[in-house]
């Protein structure tokens, strides 16, 4: 066979067959290493989802050696700690510390002391009694280099005459790196992006892409809810090669005692702790549940947290009654996504036009005068939304004298985010029914929907229905707000699009179309994206020190670009605080502005929350990252690492069904 050299130019002439073979062999090796992790270290040893005979254990231990992700013993300890103390400081790849940390950053820094401390609490006796695991652990640093780096390269060199450096580059280094990134995606992507049908109180999600690349380990919300299920998913073969392998091995007698969870147990769990997207929950029931969400929150407020206890709630007569009542009204709210094409095309065009201006602005290609003018417009727009529509009118965090009100109201006209009245109604509904169908930019419907998609489709009927429940009498009795609302579509075009362009035309002789494109369209679009980021980014990425049961997070970037509105976990916990954050001036321009107005007498009755109330709330409902939470006070009994965890109750064991059972 022809020698293919990575460095010689005739490699570029490599024909399709060579490429195909190369792709196939890399994929094969990836799967081989991958199974050593998924079927071996993960499902067999870490979670004890099934048992395996010696030949299979040896096979998996060898596969595992080709992956260089530490010895099985160490991998399992890290992973059990991850499950048991998920999202706390003791979690080795704590996803609350951000995407990069949970992906690969955790391997580049010293471990948090909690990881080691809690790691010692984990029972590892089962692995210590497995001679294959202990042999692999003892000779790991001799065996691993051979299996991870030397053999995968030597096989093609020996059998196909491949160039050794090329083989080493492709089959050892690249293949190893790809498998690593795949595994890491479970800790990063599958702890951040995706839905949570089984347990909305943990960060793990269902992610089909991760499942595809990591042989079925992306059904991670299910997996954290039922870590002892050998399928690591509710469905056996839906994007799940690992389950297939285990089943084949069970057929030939190598694997046995395969543990799964009974369907009704899964359904009940999903109905109790899921986010409502599980198929066992019908549409109406799910929203009614979420409706109870606000009642639940009230209960938390009064200090009763038993709603979230992990013991199964028995089906009561009353619950059944509500259920039937719900199914009657079910047909009414059959929701269908309907795109409003006018809006979608309009946003597309305006965004396309704004690209050029954004580029010029970001890369300092504008004269300093226009940059300064742009930024003053940003601040005027921004402050009118944040200090005006948001903190003053929507949340009544403070009161304002007439001059300040008029100022904010006029500035608000330059932002075209609908009249203050409409904005406030949408926003109050958002807070009241957050993460349900009634939430106008419901973040559980995905990033794009909560960012801008919600303005391109017809509103969910619940948004309107619940919108009517929200009390708007304070705004209706405010003549200024109602004036702005009434004449909005006459005033807004003047203030948003005409004036910002005409001022530089008149004073500096700027070309009108240039000014219109830059100061009207581009500036408006950028402010919009900033505001939208609060609904998308600040409902997806970041810590939840104050309330881990809601989607909103603390995001410093959003705060930076949206003048202090990114401390959104705090804001949803205490929406009436005029600072919209625990700390007054930490990346919070709006608070500085309101304080300044208060100094000169224009703002008054500024509401904040007392420190001890904040601390208590953070300790009660936060994710443990708040400064007032003692390091070990978070969740000692939060997770279960798998089968045989001492926290697994007798009831839990009885709920599992075991196939291919053998007497051992
Ligand atoms: Zn796991
Ligand atoms: Zn996880
Ligand atoms: Zn929000
Ligand atoms: Zn708000």
Automatic annotation (TrEMBL):
Signal peptide: none annotated. Residues 621-638 have a biased composition (Polar residues). Its cofactor is Fe(2+). One of its GO terms (biological process) is unsaturated fatty acid biosynthetic process. The keyword Oxidoreductase applies. Residues 621-641 are annotated as: Disordered. The chain crosses the membrane at residues 12-37, 58-76, 139-160, 335-353, 373-394, 487-508. Residues 24-256, 375-575 form the Fatty acid desaturase domain. Keywords: Fatty acid biosynthesis, Fatty acid metabolism, Iron, Lipid biosynthesis, Lipid metabolism, Membrane, Oxidoreductase, Transmembrane, Transmembrane helix. It is a multi-pass membrane protein. GO terms for molecular function: iron ion binding; stearoyl-CoA 9-desaturase activity. InterPro entries: Acyl-CoA_DS, FA_desaturase_dom. One of its GO terms (cellular component) is endoplasmic reticulum membrane. It is found in: Membrane. The histidine box domains are involved in binding the catalytic metal ions. Belongs to the fatty acid desaturase type 1 family. This is Fatty acid desaturase domain-containing protein. The lineage of its organism: Eukaryota, Metazoa, Ecdysozoa, Arthropoda, Hexapoda.
